[in-house]
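Review form for a predicted model. The reviewer records the input and the model, then writes brief findings.
Reviewer: anonymous (R2)
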Amino acid sequence: MCLNKIVIVGKSGAGKTTLAGQLSTKLSLKHVELDGIAWQKDWTMLSIDEFRNRVDKALASNDSWVADGNYTRRAQDIIWQRADTLIWLDYPLYLALWRVLTRTLGRIFWNVELWNGNRETFGHHLNFDPNENLFLFTIRMHKNHRADFPRVLAQAEYQHLKVLRFRHPRETEEWLSALSNPLDFGQEGYELQSIKPKNS
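Model under review:
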């Protein structure tokens, strides 16, 4: 199976966008950054219907692509069913939180523009709403992903996916460095065992 259509999932701070950019360059894939589609000016999120429509067009207009981001409730069916490979960056929570902290401080200090003119501020994180506080959101995401992803991947509609689950950045880096061409999946030991539907 070729690495032609890849979706990268994982909690905040895992490095989804960074890995997607590396794979885009290495395998000549179109990089589809889901955050860039979802977040409009002034941190306004697209409606579900419009988001699904734009994601569908972005994927359909390219023969090969790598998409980074979760958006499981908004467009999982569109993205996962089109993909041939799913990469799950399942790193330790402490590492993800540290990365979120350093990334956030850097973005605020350097006033980094993200998507459509948006910038992070301390105000985004000085509350206890897990939908706005990225640290609380990351903790919740960590628990949800480990509970939900194996169950969802066992469903019949996702049996076509080649699933690679990396538990530490070293594994990801080793696999990426060994990936010499689009047909090479790298070393053994990173794939999830084949997950079959319960009714099969």
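Findings: The helical segments are 16-27, 34-38, 48-60, 72-82, 93-109, 134-153, 169-178.
Further findings: The radius of gyration is 17 Å.
Recommendation: see findings above.
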